[in-house]
Fold this sequence. Notes:
With 168 residues, the chain is α+β, with helices and mostly antiparallel strands. It has one domain: NADH Oxidase (3-Layer(aba) Sandwich). The protein has 6 helices and 4 strands, in the order H-H-E-H-E-H-E-H-E-H. It has helices at 3-9, 23-34, 53-60, 94-111, 124-131, 160-163, and strands at 45-50, 73-80, 115-116, 137-146. Strands 1-2-4-3 form a 4-stranded antiparallel sheet, with helices on both faces. The two termini are 33 Å apart. Residues 11-12, 117-121, 152-153 line the site of flavin mononucleotide.
Amino acid sequence: MDFYNVVKNRRSIRGYKNAAVPSEALERIGEAVRSAPSACNIQPWSFRVVLNDEMRQKICQCYSADWLKEAPAIAVVLGNAESCWKRLEGDPIISMDIGIVMEHFVLAATAEGLGTCWICAYDVEKMNKALGIMAPWSVYAISPLGYANAEPREFDRKPLDELFKVID
Ligand SMILES: Cc1cc2nc3c(=O)[nH]c(=O)nc-3n(C[C@H](O)[C@H](O)[C@H](O)COP(=O)(O)O)c2cc1C
């Protein structure tokens, strides 16, 4: 798929078929994740794709939507706010690094014909406890991964000239 079609086809998918994700697709997605840039190239994250039933159930208990249970795989992105680069004022840049690696993941999954959905509205403390994640690590985002069994919501964005300006 051409890059711009990948970008256009990437939508949040909230319903999944009961079909496994091919391991070759997972390998290619893993390389796309690995190539993500990060501040000072610190790569202060660890990306997990959970296929294991028991662990997926634990993850689902930390997020309220039932459709997550349908996904054959769930990506979990851990970040380390201590080891990441800090701005000159001291603010950790971890959310940006996580955002980039997560977007590499969702775009690579789209190129593989797979659906994803960024999820951040889970109980962070419960999630970290359920997965045995200890500070300074924390789960920053999760996403289902699998073949879509639902249409995305209607596409809705602000006007282009409000979001993107070319200044000459
Ligand atoms: C950082 C972030 C967090 C999000 N968290 C959730 C979430 O917890 N649950 C959910 O259903 N969608 C979540 N979304 C998906 C957004 O609702 C979705 O990207 C937005 O409505 C645009 O729709 P689209 O992805 O289909 O283009 C999140 C997206 C981002 C970027």
